[in-house]
Amino acid sequence: MSIRNKDLDMSLPPPGADQAYCDVSALEAGIIKLSFAGFTTSASSGSAAWVPSLAFLLQHSSNREKFVFDLGIRKDWEKLPPDTHKMVSEGYPVEISQDVAESLAKGGTSPSEISTVCLSHVHFDHAGDTTLFPESTFLVGDGAKYAIEHKLPLIAVDLPPTRTTYLSPDEWQPLGPFPQALDFYGDGSLYIVNAFGHLHGHINVLARTSSDGAWIYLAGDSAHHWDLVTGKGKIAVHETATGFARCAHVDKEAAEQHLLRIRKLTEMPRIRVLLAHDGPWYEENKGGPAFWPGKIPSS
């Protein structure tokens, strides 16, 4: 799948009169140890660090609906399917002192208050425990069906059949540097962006954070390290024991194209970009007012 930027207007839409926006708060959702050499060519062999698996609460300024983006790692990760459990145990150590439901409760919010849970994709460190949200509508990219049906590595999700919507980007419209985006509320406050490349159905969120022109971009696993966004590093490719070349993305070319679009965002004024595993941002902000019941300040 290849989507190019030809003839796209790179600018983001200006705010309208009485422009709606979203308050965005980070949620603790576990930490995971990643070996960066597996993701970027700029990392030295053996370099690794504990990084967050961030989730986010977005609250609409007018209707006050609560929208959660990603669920991080489930606290009882030992219950992951056997193949995924084995991969986590052997290659992706995790620690979960507080899951998303507990993070919400810390700020006085119950899972029953969450109208929508949107998953960037269905890898175990983003899909969390969906059973903790028995009244929410779930949104996933339609490619998630393929990932689940083919039991791709690290997939672990239990989507409620009657409360899950699979989003097809076929009719979505261009937005800034992105060829396909959905105006979720219809008022320019929150957009769901097709971010194919990392995994089938991978999506991102672009939200206004003020009525006068500030934005935040939640990039999911579009990059696991900031060097891939800045261009200091390229997507790492490794040869497996069976002789196949592999990387952290199911479509390397599409992932590279999407990284260029995110880089465009970083050159625009008043926009904050956050990665799901944004170690530098987490180290600076953990335990602080950017986490619920506080909110991430507008740019």
TrEMBL record:
Origin superkingdom: Eukaryota
Gene3D superfamilies xrefs: Ribonuclease Z/Hydroxyacylglutathione hydrolase-like (3.60.15.10)
Entry's family note: Belongs to the metallo-beta-lactamase superfamily.
Cofactor section: Zn(2+)
Domain Metallo-beta-lactamase residues, every copy: 52-277
Protein name: Metallo-beta-lactamase superfamily protein
GO molecular function, one term: metal ion binding
Keywords: Hydrolase, Metal-binding, Zinc
Coiled-coil residue windows: none
Pfam name, any one: Lactamase_B
